[in-house]
């Protein structure tokens, strides 16, 4: 597994974007709000606008999903299937696996 400094830095940055306010909430025994994929109920998941909205709504943490691609790059993606959130089937119809799905790995 090739993990470059750039990819590692990105992973750390994205996993700690809002940690300051979260640490404060934990010290006061208050409930902690974790925005999984940003404000994905309002905006497309894992987009910068979704992350900004989650921050504006008072989320203590932003929880990101990282998937390692076949060529050892980290990408922010909720699951291993590309066809759920991209137009990969339209762009590359001949690249589906035997089960008809498009995988990130």
Automatic annotation (TrEMBL):
Protein name: Glycerophosphoryl diester phosphodiesterase
Signal peptide start-end: 1-25
Domain of life of the native organism: Bacteria
GO BP term, example: lipid metabolic process
GP-PDE domain span: 31-105
Gene3D superfamilies named in the record: Phosphatidylinositol (PI) phosphodiesterase (3.20.20.190)
PANTHER family, alphabetized: GLYCEROPHOSPHODIESTER PHOSPHODIESTERASE, CYTOPLASMIC (PTHR46211:SF1), GLYCEROPHOSPHORYL DIESTER PHOSPHODIESTERASE (PTHR46211)
Molecular-function annotations in GO: phosphoric diester hydrolase activity
Keywords: Signal
């Amino acid at each position: 597994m090739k993990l470059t400094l750039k990819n590692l830095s990105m992973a750390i940055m994205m996993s700690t974007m809002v940690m300051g306010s979260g640490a404060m909430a934990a010290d006061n025994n208050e409930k902690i709000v974790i925005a999984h994929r940003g404000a994905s109920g309002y905006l497309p998941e894992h987009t910068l606008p979704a992350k900004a909205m989650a921050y504006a709504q008072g989320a203590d943490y932003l929880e990101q999903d990282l998937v390692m691609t076949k060529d050892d790059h980290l990408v922010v993606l909720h699951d291993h299937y590309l066809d759920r959130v991209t137009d990969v089937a339209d762009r590359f119809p001949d690249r589906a696996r035997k089960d008809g799905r498009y995988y990130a790995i």
